[in-house]
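STRUCTURE REQUEST FORM
Protein name: MSHA pilin protein MshA
Source organism: Aliivibrio fischeri
Requested output: structure tokens
Priority: standard
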Amino acid sequence: MKRQGGFTLIELVVVIVILGILAVTAAPKFLNLQSDARASSLQGLKGAMAGAAGIVYGKAAIDGKETASTETDVDGIATKYGYPMAKDTGIAEAVVGLSEDWSSATSGATILVVGFKSDNATAASIVATNCFVTYGEATTVSSGVSTIVTDTGC
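Status: completed
Returned output:
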């Protein structure tokens, strides 16, 4: 009679135990993906804000409005020194989807703080998350805008 080949029950149990050990050691690497995704989203938003500011500045320069020190309208976007201002009619209007997908609040006259969507967000509540983008509007003709990501709390 021919002996039938196959795995014994002990061999199968040993393989399952080894797979379990591998899963336990590899799992922590994949558990922190949400934090990385949030930080990456903020980097993407920073790029979108910088790109939108550059495009608006180009339009302002074509219109000859890049040196205006007071609020000036460029294609429906409030600008100052050619760059979008730090308010809902400024950079929030220039970046498509910013006001629908993100919470934003002004902090001072020239800074807009943008974080993940939440109800009744204030600048202080967004900053308290340590997971936000700060947009600083241009304060002089040569200063340009600043976009800073804070992702220590993501």
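Reviewer notes: Strands lie at 72-74, 77-80, 83-84, 102-106, 111-116, 132-136, 146-150. The chain has one domain: 11-150.
Form closed.
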